[in-house]
UniProtKB/TrEMBL annotation:
SMART domains tied to this protein: PP2C_SIG (SM00331)
Keyword terms, alphabetized: Hydrolase, Membrane, Transmembrane, Transmembrane helix
The protein's name: PP2C family protein-serine/threonine phosphatase
Residue span(s) of domain PPM-type phosphatase: 149-374
InterPro entries: Bact_Sigma-Reg, PPM-type-like_dom_sf, PPM-type_phosphatase-like_dom
Length: 387
């Protein structure tokens, strides 16, 4: 568990008792009204009557509690109203009878309202749990380490209360190497989840095969093209569905990274010596996945230096094309260069916080960021652990 996760967990643990205490303190107000209003009513002149305000106690209870407690407070309010009428010797008058009937009706309505609200809340919790389970299955979290590589990542969907959308990432280990995928499905939010699942399924099915990187991407193209055509409805145009992607292969014992780009924004290399952010632009990029049927693409891997201590920043266009209030694109390379000396997790946290501040709070597109750091070869790690 990351330090940020531990801090969040501790904070939530400390806040839970405070929330529970404030929740029950909310009930003190309605109970105080139920006691105070009849008492005050008994000392007021006959032409001033406050007992009808008891409905406020029931309404306040309904805001924070469920049907049982609302019904209990409502019953107490009716009893208090009857007691106030008895003390003033007005219980059988038409005015008090109407007040009692009205209070009973309002209490019944509020109890029914809280019942419906509670049922809806349970349904939302169930839907959210299904959504979280779907996210864990479709978009699995990256490992903290894979061979000599360490990871940090961040993901945000453009749609509120949704943990998955059109951006995707995955990693896989093969003997002597780590493979990484980052991609961006055309579209955003819930509408793109099916294509996200197709691409991730294709990568996971093939990434563990000890084949060259271009062959891996060619297999993914076939699988993605078939999957998108298979699951396209009559109203969909399969030719308009595609996925930009970058697929990387990072050897354990060579200070390099191999990259195949399928129309995806180039990774940024943060060199451990000078902290410069260099875009790894592939000389021969391929078209996005899903368009292979139309253009019959070829795939070529470009090789770049990736030394011990260097970091790679992979991102989607939800980062590079984010705009501020004046419509200016987010200066990703400049901002990242300022944090080049930070480890992966703080670097991702700094980038995410700065990006949100730049756009004014809420991102308008799905966003995925991965930071990959080469920590050393497996033999170096074994030596350091032994020491």
């Amino acid at each position: 568990m990351s330090p940020a996760s531990i801090t969040t967990s501790v904070a939530e643990t400390l806040r839970s008792p405070l929330r529970a205490a404030s929740h029950w303190l909310w009930l003190a107000g309605p109970l105080l009204l139920i006691v105070a209003i009849p008492v005050a009513d008994a000392f007021l002149p006959p032409d001033i009557h406050l007992a009808h305000l008891l409905v406020v106690a029931v309404a306040v209870t309904a805001v924070a509690f469920g049907p049982r407690l609302t019904a209990l407070v409502g019953t107490l309010a009716v009893i208090a109203l009857v007691a106030a009428g008895t003390v003033r010797h007005t219980l059988t008058t038409e005015s008090v009878v109407v007040e009692i009937a009205a209070l009973v009706a309002v209490c019944a309505f509020l109890v029914f309202f809280t019942y419906l609200r509670g049922r809806r809340d349970r349904e939302l919790v169930h839907v959210r749990s299904v959504s979280d389970a779907t996210q864990r299955v479709v978009l699995r979290p990256l490992p903290e380490r894979a061979g000599p590589i360490s990871f940090a990542s961040e993901y945000h969907s453009a749609e509120a209360d949704t943990g998955i959308g059109g951006d995707l990432y995955a990693a896989a280990r093969i003997p002597g190497s780590t493979r990484v995928l980052i991609g961006d499905v055309r579209g955003k939010g819930l509408a793109s989840i099916s294509d996200t699942a197709i691409v991730l399924g294709a990568f996971r099915a093939a990434a563990h095969r000890p084949v060259p990187l271009p062959e891996l991407v060619a297999y993914m193209e076939d699988a993605v093209g078939w999957g998108m055509a298979e699951f396209s409805g009559l109203e969909d145009d399969a030719a308009e569905r595609f996925v930009t992607a970058a697929v990387l292969d990072i050897p354990d014992d060579e200070p390099v990274v191999h990259v195949v780009s399928c129309g995806h924004p180039p990774p940024l290399l943060l060199h451990h010596v000078n902290g410069a952010a260099t875009a790894l632009s592939v000389p021969e990029p391929s078209p996005p996945l899903g368009l292979g049927v139309a253009v019959d693409p070829t795939y070529a891997a470009a090789t770049f230096p990736f030394e011990h201590g260097d970091r790679l920043l992979l991102y989607t266009d939800g980062v590079s094309e984010a705009r501020d209030e004046q419509g200016v694109f987010y200066p990703l390379a400049e901002r990242v260069a300022a944090w080049a000396d930070q480890p992966p997790v703080p670097l991702v946290e700094s980038l995410t916080a700065d990006l949100r501040a730049y756009v004014g709070g809420r991102l308008q597109d799905d966003m995925a960021v991965i930071v990959i750091q080469r920590d050393g070869t497996p033999s170096e790690q074994s030596s350091s652990e032994a020491a």
